[in-house]
Amino acid sequence: MQTVTELFGSNVFDDRVMKANLSAKVYQSLKKTIDEGKPLDLSVANAVATAMKDWALSKGATHFTHWFQPLTGITAEKHDSFISPAPDGRVIMEFSGKELIQGEPDASSFPSGGIRATFEARGYTAWDPTSYAFIKGKTLCIPTAFCSYGGEALDKKTPLLRSMEALNTQAMRILKLFGKDDVKCVRTSVGPEQEYFLVDKAMFEKRRDLVCCGRTLFGAKPPKGQEMEDHYFGTIKPRVAAFMAELNEELWKLGVLAKTEHNEVAPAQHELAPIYTTTNVACDHNQLMMEIMQRIATKHGLACLLHEKPFAGVNGSGKHNNWSMATDTGVNLLSPGDTPHENAQFLLFLCAVIKAVDDYQDLLRISVATAGNDHRLGANEAPPAVVSIFLGDELTAILEAIEKDLPYAGKEKTTLKLGVDVLPKFPRDTTDRNRTSPFAFTGNKFEFRMLGSANSISCTNIMLNSAVAESLKTYADRLEKAEDFSSALHDMIKKTIKDHKRILFNGNGYDDKWIKEAEKRGLCNYRTTPDCMPHLLDKKNVDMLTSHKVFTEKELESRCEIMLDNYCKTVVIEANTMSDMVRKQILPAVEKYLGEVSKTSVYKQQFVPTVSCAYEKETVLRLSALTESIFLSCKELEEAVIRLAECKNTIEESYAIRDTVLGKMSALRVAVDEAETMTAEEYWPFPSYCDLLFGVR
Ligand code: ADP
Ligand code: MG
User: Fold this and answer.
1) Which domains does the chain have, with CATH numbers?
2) How many A from CA of 692 to the centre of ligand 1?
3) What is the pTM of this model?
């Protein structure tokens, strides 16, 4: 039995393995590429490729793949064998530097939003040496970016790496002003907390909605839901514990720092949190985590649901993106320091985030927008669709004192002078005290809570990194020219607080009063994906993202198109699944039961005319009426879907879905759910909410 320390990273071509298997010269130049982005020459790549292959073969691998994240939201891989023919008719196992650095998957079916015409459909993949290669099954997976031949990004990793570079460039300018000459780079770090549901696999298979859409489209409220809150942090059931144990082991082998796991609020809901790491690695790891969760669940006779809202009436699943910035020398830039100098630097980085979140609140909202997450944002378990920042009372009071030149309560009658005074000590609020805030400061990092459980965390971090890079750029431009650094800094921080305090809100984000207040403050409230997505192309957003070279205008247009198209397709599949279930399963089942009940009631009436049973009468009457309305609602839904063909473009289609299709889906569901409560269990064609939510023991 291997110990955890032996197990950890055993399937990863990490620094330890590189050091052991590469010559000192090759190792040094690879490190330069990894740490400083220096180009890699082919002789080094060849040496790395050979070492990687030998290591992979020793671990039983036979294939390699360029592993990438196309815009579909999942990860893609195309396996190639290491086999190469030898002159003597046998085979040798080969892997060249060229194959390591660049691949050409014939991946013409991935969405490109109009970037690639089919005649030039091939994209290419390019190795990302900053994320370690790993072995999955019998395949060596090489994390790569995916681009078109014109160099346009067709994936989520490319813009993420660009956004990290943008932030690095601007943060370095600021650190230089603070005299931090020893710092070589600034990286953002992320620790994403992942929520998910586990249900019994056999029951999952019986529900076409879960199989086709990942969420239930029907389901009457169970007698018991989450009202007792007895699942939250409760004892983990043996089957789930076995799943978690194996999941941890698999993740550890891949170097994923899976750390805590617990039951969540809703029955059958759980959470897994890793220890944070560099953003692009965290993104790769989160994608791997989601994939492996689903695979291990199957092995345990379970289905892992990553959908944001698998069940109506119980909490949905989100993902908390804990985010910070740190130097290569190990300084967390969002951690308040002990000296006046450190305090001033902390406040500047803090203000850069505040300004970024206010100026680009729409981009943050857009970064989490999917048909699935729309069900969650603004419903009572998730933060609203309005972005705001929670700082906690103490830090807010400090900022207020700075803004207004007022003495801070902790200081005796003197006002704070940045760069001269030490900040008063304030307790580090690392708890989840305000769970209703979409963007909360938790002591030394920010926690962005609007992400859906199925979202790739790349999208959010691309926007966050870029927006913060933009604030830092504005600051650096000003400070580099300043005659008196300290007073310029003080004024700038004051101005940021004044200009952006509308985004600060420490109260209850679930309160309706807040939504009204937020609108008064001029904050965006984009409730749905069609409401927010087109704003990706607003001039201010295009200007910012192109100026930092995170996206080209063409890439933004294509992403907007792809995201809206994805929204439309998701809902249309759901609508089609509903009508399929209604026509082939639900109506026939209700009819059968109705026939049974009316048969006995007619039979009794015939022989004993005075006997009339209320149960039979009411059931027959109500179920007949419901069958009628189910049938009519279903037809209306089908017609609404057909009419989508008349829409002139994707935006128009997404509006039609938002305004007509979704409403008809709800109406149909209401009728079906009532029918479920009146139909005998043995007639109902698929497992109920009660079966699903409490079925894993
Ligand atoms: P909480 O009190 O919210 O549980 P934790 O310290 O447990 O706080 O952190 C929750 C998540 O935040 C974990 O995934 C953790 O790794 C991550 N995290 C902690 N520090 C940082 C940081 N500096 N940058 C990014 N993520 C971080
Ligand atoms: Mg959290």
Assistant:
1) 4-155 (3.10.20.70), 163-215+231-410+435-551 (3.30.590.10), 567-694 (1.20.120.1560)
2) 32
3) 0.93
